[in-house]
Structures
1.
Amino acid sequence: MANSGDINVGSVIRFNGELCRVEEYQHRTPGNLRAFYQARMRNLKNGKIVENRFRAGEAVEVVRVDYKQMQFIYPEGDFIVVMDNESYEQIYIPSFLLGDSLKFLKEGMEVKISFEGDEPILAEAPTFVELIITYAEPGEKGNTATNALKPATMETGAVVNVPLFVNEGEKIRIDTRTNSYVERVK
């Protein structure tokens, strides 16, 4: 058992019998009151946000999580199929673990999967992906006075807002955390 001072953002803890990942964690010392930790956590089973105050020194169960880089193969229904690069074993992972970043995955990309024992509890797509634009309207001349954006369809079917100077057939880098355009790739 760890105490509340050992927790950081990104830690996985068991809170009220459920696995939760800490998203925000602040140490507060208000005036003449005792110090406490304010935590904002996401339940890993249902995705709900939970907030709680931990007293300084309170016992907290930190869960041991193993991370593994696996190769994305293909989606199948409500699951994605990933392959272990060492044993070549194929594993079915629930697709809701990836969230919105699922639409940027293509075959062969590396995905970071977190396990508690043998059960997958978290999945993270690569932070940046490089995709080719398959369809984009041509930019209008004279529309460049402001930071104008246009929708562009990627090779995976995802739609991302890009600047007007980006054209069909170009490769761009996308941030999967924010679903936004980063830069053109040469």
2.
Amino acid sequence: MTSSPTPSPAAGAFEPIERVAHRLVGAAFSPHRHDTYTVALTMAGVQAFNYRGATRHSLPGQVLILHPEELHDGHCHDEAGFSYRAAYVPPTHVQAVLGGAELPFVANGVSTDPALIAAACTMVIDCADVTDPAAYEDALFDLANAMNNAAGRPAKVKIANRTAVMRAREFLDTAVVDGARLAQLEEVADCDRWQLSRDFRALLGTSPYRYLQHRRVDLAKQLLRDGATLADAAHGAGFADQSHFGRTFRKAVGLTPNAWLRSDLFRTIIL
């Protein structure tokens, strides 16, 4: 079993969260409770657990969401065992996004909701090795809202503040290398950071964090066209390391940086 805390997104804002990766064969977790949300993805096998008076099963491709303070256990469905990855998200973090709304409760503890699964994958897997605290803020926003929707309580829709969004976008365009936190955008745009996140998505179709990542990929492409090495392009575009650069580039382009350099697309662009 491996367990590691994630650096807090901001000093004094969020405490670090714990993430684990574990394989269980022929053993069981006795009944216990967490004071956090358990957000877990079964990676292989079948995970069985008793929760709210019934035995549940989590399969690969599903997401397990356990509400804080709910008693549960965990055991193998068969002799093959199972493996899973999980993140433990404090309810205070979820509340920061939802702004005082009742904590969402996901019925039965297991969901096949595509948006919730995608948000959980980002929180549990994609953010695990990323040190940029803005990545956690972005994942937290998506997870909290996906849980809220899965619980049947969609957030109230408000008219988007276009002026605030444009101010935030202009600031992000100047902060490609250095990066930006939601707290900075809140100050620049004079708008609550979580409302700004909603409005940014509504008007521009992406989150502030992902908008910044796309601008970093654009800058890295230009540096590569100018002859930079992969390492220099990653550093020059503001990525924490070459591994993070590679993952982000592939998500944005559909190719690794090396494959893009060898592609007809790259040769066509530079002719």
3.
Amino acid sequence: MNAFVPAEWSPHSAMWVGFPSHAELWKDDLAEARREVAMLVHALAGPGRERVKLMTATDEAMAAALELLGATAGVEIIAGTFGDIWLRDTGPIFMDPDRAVAFRFNGWGGKYDLPEDHSVPDQIATRAGAALVRQDFVMEGGALDHDGRGTVLTTRKCLLNANRNRHWREGDAERALESAIGARKVLWLNQGLINDHTDGHVDNLARFVGPGVVACPVAFGLGDPNAAAYDAAAETLAGYADADGNRLRVVRIPSPGRLMDDDHRVIPASHMNFLIANGAVIVPTYGDPAGDWAVQALEALFDDRVVIGLPSHALLTGGGSFHCISQQEPA
């Protein structure tokens, strides 16, 4: 049994991906969001060398997934139930192939508490043949990032938010993570991205990309609304050591810059929501000019994998991107 959550670059036996299934949640973006997921799945099953378990939630979604991906080798299309596709947050975290951990889920602090999301951990663990251990505190998988040696990245804005575990302080969170997933050291950042309904998930801000190496954004262009948060995160990370006592190396990745929705609100677009597969790293892009630069920067960090930029603009209208809709099963 693994004592710690495996690093995402460790070998996987499968990758779970959620397929947009509820038209009322996606509205005019449904068809494009499905096309973006299909492109992701093709990349995962091809250069990503993943066995993909694509989870659908309605008969209509199953038919649409079969039409887009039914002939793709290495892709299993699964009928399940969920409120929405964010399996990183609603699903379990695998410790090893035989054991997964599930937390209480409250719809990101009560914002989007949808039917059936609470049943996702049982569905995934059962299908994977893993024992499920339930923890009695609120947590989402995207709130944490792991180095495979017990070092955990997170943000105070999310993990200590009163809308999750009302009376938690840092020590409470650290003890809970030590007990639940073997965390040896928790590295705290402050803020996440502006208008991120997750209250600042770390997988939009900073990610482990290797032992002792963390990537985080650098502002791109004029008026990047998250510039201060990026610089604060980089400065804080540079002062940290991991659980083994090794000082972190911080690598800056170009952000998408200032992107707005149709209502002229800043959208929480991030190249940090990349997904590390067995043979590839899939990076979300948003039609932003920095997308190619972000891919090139990550290529320098993952010389054992092909780095692929794929569009994720429609997915972002639902609140997340590639890392948010996926969860890996370790080999």
